[in-house]
Amino acid sequence: MSDYKAVFTDLDGTLLDEQGQVSPATREVLARLHARGIPVFIATGRSVCATLSAVGSLGLSNPFICYNGAVVYDPVTGEWLRHETLDDEVTAGLLDVAHAHALFYFLYHQDEKVTLPPRHDYQADFYERMENMREVHRFEDLPRRSVTKISIFTPGGEHDRAVLDFLASLDREHYVERFPMGSIPGFREFDFHATDVHPLAGGKAAGMRFVMERSGLDASEVVAIGDHRNDLSMLREAGLAVAVGDAPPELLAAADRVIDHGEGEGVGRFLTEIFGV
């Protein structure tokens, strides 16, 4: 019988398969953990609505850590238990830079993705694949207060340099994630890059600490599983740190165990081993 009492797991590249789904076998493992009273907490960079789309059918009642720790969401009550937002002046500055240098951009406001109408066919195609979109017709109508995150889409390479230069000019740090859209299941054919910016709110570890305090858990009692740099703070905090095998070197170095992704079933197999379910 394991001494661990809870699990915190990333979604993309970790719990989800290449189609962005939880495999039937892993669903059964999660159900058995629930029956044993072992809570599973989702910790993801996704928005609330994207997290619900991925795992809402699992019936998880434990809070979700979303936006890389900036938001903690209660799926039972719909309450945002924790919500860190960008400084309004930073939002305005990022908007100006994005409007001048990006292909297009989204502002995450109350979990809506707010943007301007598409100007190109590929952009319209991209929009159709996104959830909870709202278009406004004028740049002046974009929200500039209480914004959780801004996603800025550029041709790739160093085309996001204006965004990074703006952030470097500030007297505070922000969480920045840069990635090719083609690395995300369901978006393989898009060749532009995304730069996500949201407040440096302590990362997933801060969200994990918030949840542990509410749940009466100690860090030594939890298992944390992830595959990317945004999972590093969470793994460093956990009693048992688990990295998926294709994770970056710094994540592998911080891990106590390394597991295979296994087409989305590696996490389920590992949890069966650790908890005997």
What does this structure look like?
By secondary structure, the protein is an alpha/beta fold. It folds into two domains: 6-83 and 202-275, HAD superfamily/HAD-like (Rossmann fold); 88-199, 2-Layer Sandwich (Hypothetical Protein, Haloacid Dehalogenase-like Hydrolase, Chain: A, domain 2). The protein has ten helices and 14 strands. It has helices at residues 11-15, 24-35, 48-55, 88-101, 121-128, 161-168, 203-215, 232-237, 249-254, 266-275, and strands spanning 6-9, 40-42, 64-66, 71-73, 80-83, 104-109, 112-115, 133-135, 147-154, 174-180, 193-199, 222-226, 240-244, 257-259. α2 runs parallel beside α10 and α4 packs antiparallel against α6. The mean pLDDT is 93.
CATH class of the largest domain: Alpha Beta
Gross morphology: globular
Mean of all residue-level pLDDT scores: 93
**Succession of helices and strands:** EHHEHEEEHEEHEEHEEHEHEHEH
How much strand? 15-25%
Cα radius of gyration in angstroms: 19 Å
Number of strands: 14
- End-to-end separation in angstroms reads 10 Å
Main beta sheet: strand number and arrangement?
6 strands, mixed
What helical percentage do the residues reach?
Answer: 25-40%
What CATH calls the topology of the largest domain is Rossmann fold
CATH arch. level architecture of the largest domain: 3-Layer(aba) Sandwich
The number of distinct helices, counting runs of at least 4 residues, comes to 10
Poorly predicted regions are: none
